[in-house]
Amino acid sequence: MANKNQHLETLRQVPLFSSCSKKELTKVAKATDEVSMPDGEMLTDQGQMGREAFVIVDGEVVVKRNNRKVATLGPGSVVGELSLLDKGPRTATATCLGDCTVLVIDRRRFLSVVEEIPSISQKLMASLAGRVRELDRAYYG
Predict the structure, then answer these.
(1) Does the CA dihedral 113-59-44-129 come out positive or negative?
(2) Tens-digit pLDDT profile for the chain (141 aa)?
(3) Torsional sign, CA 44, 33, 114, 7
């Protein structure tokens, strides 16, 4: 199990939280649960409803969309963050490649943190806008 400072450093690597102060990161960290996941464990299942997001602390996660690999993510990456914003279906399937440790934050706890730290919502929108732009460039050139 990682200590509090390790969780803060992991969260600081996540673009959404990278510009947060230590005090803000501490609030986010308190809203998460550390969970160990075995090899092959599915974090998200494309098409299913999601209620939480996962920050990878240790290990790797393969992301597939329509059974096609689109990414391999490691420590500091986040999976399932759209579920923090809406109740829509998962857009991809994410599965642990080997044993993984993740920080789990559910929608209710995340929204509570956003109420305490409103600037996180602006950072989330900027992060998601950046990802939409990346996908747009990749798809349309």
Answers:
(1) positive
(2) 566 778 888 898 887 787 788 888 898 999 999 999 999 999 999 999 999 999 999 999 999 999 999 999 999 999 998 888 888 899 999 999 999 999 999 999 999 998 988 887 787 788 778 878 887 898 887
(3) negative
What pTM was estimated for this model as a whole? 0.86
Radius of gyration over every alpha carbon of the chain, rounded to an integer in angstroms: 15
Q: By residue range, what is the domain housing residue 49? A: 4-140
Split into its structural domains, the chain has a count of: 1
Q: Residue 76 belongs to a domain with what CATH number?
A: 2.60.120.10
Residue of 43, 71, 44 whose CA lies nearest to 135 = 71
Which residues are 61's β-sheet partners? 73, 96
SS3 category, 107 = helix
Residue type, 35: V
